[in-house]
Amino acid sequence: MELKRPINCDEQIQMLRTHGIVINDESFARLVLNNVGYYRLTGYALQYRKDTNSSDLSSPISLEHLYHIYKFDEKLRSLLRRYLEICEIYYRTQIADGFALRECIQPPHNQHYDEKNFYKKDVYNSVMESFNKERDYYKDGPIVKHHMAKYEGKMPIWVMTELLSFSNLSRLYSAMYNTDKECIAENCGTTSKTLEKHLHCLSVLRNKCAHCSRLYNAKMTPPVRLSKSFLT
Description:
- It is built from eleven helices and two strands, in the order H-E-H-H-E-H-H-H-H-H-H-H-H.
- By secondary structure, it is mostly helical.
- A two-stranded parallel sheet has the order 1-2.
């Protein structure tokens, strides 16, 4: 099956008009299409389509209206990134310290490198495989250089979690035994089931914001689980 033929800016403007988007100023349309892109912009028109199998709109809307929605989404991502960073740093600290103070007290204090200390061993091994790649990516950084020289590349869990992506941090938590998860969750004022769901949802949202994905009118998968105390 052949893919769609690429089209130039003039053809994109004509395509927008064909589908029901009103363009009053072609200079403005070219500016928007050159800065944002046809594909990204038209994602904000999905809720206006006649049906899911058609690119035609149920009623005409202006390009300015569509662009305003895009700008709203841009500001929303920017706002969320600020608070997602606070959440990410907080959870990195809680997970690393919570596990370390339960499992890594006894020498050689590297129990987080032993799969026996994790319930979901396949998930744990997958996270560690990703961690090794991330460690190699940051091999020229002072943190990695220090631990390669002094500790043969092994790091305390509170250092390791600084290099893990937020997605892998979430997966590391999900791989722990319930007793460890509950202890960490209790320090966060919630349950392990709720925290596990929140970590996953936050990592998905964080990645969407980092990669400039559309949030407006987009569904979160899986849906966010909110506790009764939060809702009341």
